[in-house]
Design the sequence.
């Protein structure tokens, strides 16, 4: 059974992952003009077939990204938010531990001073 290759749709449209819907549409229009079957009529049979295959790939990438780009961006944003929250909790825990140490030393010193009198 042949391996199925995962297609990087951003790469097909020559974009980065942190792109906008508008940039996706622009890239699609630009590439479609180059690879559209009607634009490649005067080329050889092999070149026409390659252009048609590339055209299909571009259209598939465009449709996928339009439908899923927002979801992908939200998922990435959630991961970043979770990482920030986790770091914040760790920092708070460390700070509270340091505060407890400092506070307990100060309180115990004050109690000791009071008992001494």
Sequence:
């Amino acid at each position: 059974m042949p391996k199925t290759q995962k297609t990087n749709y951003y790469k097909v449209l020559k974009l980065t992952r942190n792109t906008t819907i508008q940039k996706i549409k622009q890239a699609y229009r630009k590439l479609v003009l180059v690879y559209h079957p009607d634009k490649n009529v005067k080329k050889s049979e092999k070149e026409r077939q390659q252009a048609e295959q590339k055209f299909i790939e571009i259209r598939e990438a465009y449709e996928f990204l339009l439908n899923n780009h927002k979801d992908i961006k939200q998922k990435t944003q959630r991961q970043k938010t979770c990482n920030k929250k986790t770091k914040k909790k760790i920092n708070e825990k460390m700070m509270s531990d340091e505060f407890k140490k400092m506070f307990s030393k100060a309180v115990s010193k004050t109690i000791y001073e009071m008992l001494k009198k």
In short: The mean pLDDT is 76. The helical segments are 9-12, 21-35, 45-116. Residues 9-85 form a domain with the Helix Hairpins fold (CATH 1.10.287.110).
